[in-house]
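Researcher: I'd like a candidate sequence for this fold, 561 residues long. If you have to choose between options at a position, lean toward the conservative one.
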């Protein structure tokens, strides 16, 4: 490629007499005369001191910039936002969590588009900034690599953030005292990095690697490690090569690549949020993907990794035996991955995996295909008169495959949590939390506080929970979320009453209430939407534009004729 072809976008900003003002401003931020002739590579950093997941990413961004400069580019570091799910969980602030995904995608698009960067390295370390980054990369379609900020190291006694949520429930049940709860609180989070189980961050890092948008094992490195520093440096190098060979995200993010991502998420026992985020990324990439694709792929892919929250091991344990590359090699050999998909290395997935060694003998973190944890997916897409447009259940089989019980209906997460902590929810109940959907919250809050309290009270196998909200990747138990249509638009969830008999069947993939269509219609006529406290600002804008959870809860602007 010629110099001008390498600088497809930046030359518009810096070449020619008329762009002297642009060059003058860039000189002030450190550009040399030679830099104007190099491809500009934006380093999108999600650094902040808002959360431990992202507190170290400034250093990683600088390392990616060094790699880009070393390869022959000119790196420019910029920031986008991050909000903490773990900190805002169970509060009104959690409404902003999923909304932040759209803000992040929009902000990266805005900076890259305005500044004329020729390539991008995006570094994300928390649940929503990861899919937000990749949504922006798909939208921009300029040579790009995503880098995961890395997982946190285990706390004392192998604790993590979910340990704290479950300790709150245990304290309410009288199983532990105040001193033990304080000890868990003080020792669960030892430093930088994303939550340590196969929760949403590690799930999405693995999915993005399987999608082909990260370098090998980017998903399986601790945040505080030399491997992660090297990963960032190599990502800077890699983007320059992608520019040189004109390989762009939409060359990588094919339909088969999304199937690879879904397959790896299932094998790892990953978070339900992967459904929401992969649907959203696919929409930005122009790839047709829908809820039922998760069902079809799930019929042939087993759950193999014994990872938290429902399993025994942390991401650090998986890293110690080789990360997800050996798992992907096994899956490829078994015919469960598309090996011809292009990746950010410039090679196919099969080429990347060709020399990957298997896991060491004797490990029991990742099982073989002859002894899976579950022979098909733990992500069950359910339909029925409770969820005509679908719902997403996370059912490993440990909590059973069916549940039938009376509804205990709550209008918010706070109401439900208090009832659980007070002992008002008992074995056999189906907890219904409504008006927490994309429009209802607005923002589709996660229900880790209620599910953590249920587990902490020892009711994990004896109580089901359904909601039009979401679940943290740390949630486990008999849980069903993303119920669509949501209650705020008059979906069936809005019509349920205490005592209605609800049946959840993961094998039949059904979620039903024992009410006739006539009874549901009668209740719908009497239903009135509750008033919302949100009148203005980003939450109101989100509520006006957001799609259903079954479509990824993406914002869809009004059509412009």
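Model: Candidate sequence:
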């Amino acid at each position: 490629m010629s110099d001008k072809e390498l600088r497809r976008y930046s030359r518009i900003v810096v070449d020619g007499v008329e762009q002297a003002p642009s060059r003058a401003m860039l000189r002030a931020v450190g550009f040399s005369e030679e830099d104007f002739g190099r491809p500009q590579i934006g380093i999108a950093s999600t650094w902040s001191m808002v959360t431990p997941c992202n507190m170290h990413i400034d250093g990683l961004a600088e390392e990616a910039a060094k790699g880009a400069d070393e390869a022959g580019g000119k790196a420019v570091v910029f920031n986008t936002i991050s909000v903490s799910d773990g900190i805002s969980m169970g509060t009104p602030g959690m409404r902003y969590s999923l909304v932040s995904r759209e803000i992040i995608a929009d902000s990266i698009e805005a900076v890259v588009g305005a500044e004329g960067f020729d390539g991008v390295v995006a570094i994300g370390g928390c649940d929503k900034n990861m899919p937000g980054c990749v949504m922006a990369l798909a939208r921009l379609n300029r040579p790009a690599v995503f880098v995961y900020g890395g997982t946190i190291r285990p706390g004392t006694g192998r604790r993590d953030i979910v340990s704290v949520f479950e300790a709150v429930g245990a304290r309410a049940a009288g199983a532990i005292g105040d001193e033990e709860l304080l000890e868990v609180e003080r020792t669960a989070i030892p430093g930088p990095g994303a939550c340590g189980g196969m929760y949403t961050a590690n799930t999405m890092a693995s999915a993005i690697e399987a999608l082909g948008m990260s370098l090998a094992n980017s998903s399986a490195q601790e945040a505080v490690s030399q491997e992660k520093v090297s990963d960032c440096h190599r990502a800077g190098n890699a983007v320059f090569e992608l520019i040189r060979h004109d390989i762009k995200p939409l060359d990588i993010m094919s339909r088969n690549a999304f199937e690879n991502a879904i397959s790896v998420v299932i094998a790892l026992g990953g978070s339900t949020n992967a459904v929401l985020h992969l649907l959203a990324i696919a929409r930005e990439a122009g790839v047709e993907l829908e809820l039922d694709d998760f069902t079809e792929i799930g019929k042939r892919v087993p759950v193999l990794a014994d990872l938290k929250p429902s399993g025994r091991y942390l991401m650090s344990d998986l890293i110690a035996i080789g990360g997800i590359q050996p798992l992907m090699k096994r899956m490829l050999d078994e015919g469960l991955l598309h090996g011809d998909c292009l990746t950010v290395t410039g090679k196919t997935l099969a080429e990347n995996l060709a020399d990957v060694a298997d896991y060491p003998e004797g490990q029991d973190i990742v099982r073989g295909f002859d002894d899976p944890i579950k022979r098909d997916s733990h992500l069950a897409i359910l339909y029925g008169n409770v969820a005509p447009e679908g719902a997403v259940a996370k059912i490993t089989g440990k909590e059973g495959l069916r549940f039938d019980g009376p509804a205990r209906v709550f209008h918010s997460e706070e109401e439900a949590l208090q009832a659980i902590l007070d002992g008002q929810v008992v074995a056999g109940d189906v907890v219904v939390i409504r008006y927490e959907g994309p429009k209802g919250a607005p923002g589709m809050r996660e229900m880790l506080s209620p599910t953590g309290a249920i587990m902490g009270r020892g009711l994990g196998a004896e109580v089901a929970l359904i909601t039009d909200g979401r679940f943290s990747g740390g949630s486990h138990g008999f849980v069903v979320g993303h119920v669509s249509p949501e209650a705020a638009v008059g979906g069936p969830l809005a019509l349920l009453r205490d005592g209605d008999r609800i049946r959840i069947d993961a094998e039949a993939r059904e979620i039903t209430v024992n009410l006739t269509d006539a009874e549901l219609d009668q209740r719908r006529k009497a239903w009135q939407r509750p008033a919302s406290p949100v009148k203005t600002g980003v939450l109101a804008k989100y509520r006006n534009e957001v799609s259903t959870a079954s479509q990824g809860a993406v914002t869809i602007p009004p059509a412009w004729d």
